[in-house]
């Protein structure tokens, strides 16, 4: 009897391994956050720090995507990318901090600009 993972799953074994490893690696932190988050006050210094770090990570990823894009987004001029983000940001605040209209406007400007050859 062959007990290797290759025998039972065939060519799918790497994907199954990634799925299981990804689930275990992320869900243990999610569950820890659920249990620990209930006992931490939203006004505590720890919670404020965690929120600030999370916001900084999101801002950093967005800045990297806008300033150093990969793939087809790299074909759009940097002014178009920054303008689309600025317009989406303005719509976000003008609609009472609703993110869906801001995302739609930013995407529409970006797609429209790329189709127009800007």
TrEMBL record:
InterPro entries: Brnchd-chn_aa_trnsp_AzlD. Keywords: Membrane, Transmembrane, Transmembrane helix. It comes from the Bacteria. The chain crosses the membrane at residues 12-36, 48-68, 74-92, 99-117. This is AzlD domain-containing protein. It comes from Agaricicola taiwanensis.
């Amino acid at each position: 009897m062959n007990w290797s993972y290759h025998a039972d799953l065939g060519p799918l074994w790497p994907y199954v391994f990634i799925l299981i490893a990804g689930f275990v690696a992320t869900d243990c932190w999610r569950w820890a956050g659920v249990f620990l988050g209930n006992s931490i006050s939203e006004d505590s210094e720890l919670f404020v720090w965690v929120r600030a770090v999370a916001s900084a990570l999101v801002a950093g990823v967005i800045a990297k995507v806008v300033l150093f894009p990969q793939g087809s987004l790299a074909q759009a001029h940097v002014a178009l990318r920054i303008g689309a983000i600025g317009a989406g940001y303005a719509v976000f605040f003008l609609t009472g901090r609703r993110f869906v209209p801001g995302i739609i406007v930013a995407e529409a400007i970006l797609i429209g600009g790329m189709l127009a050859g800007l």
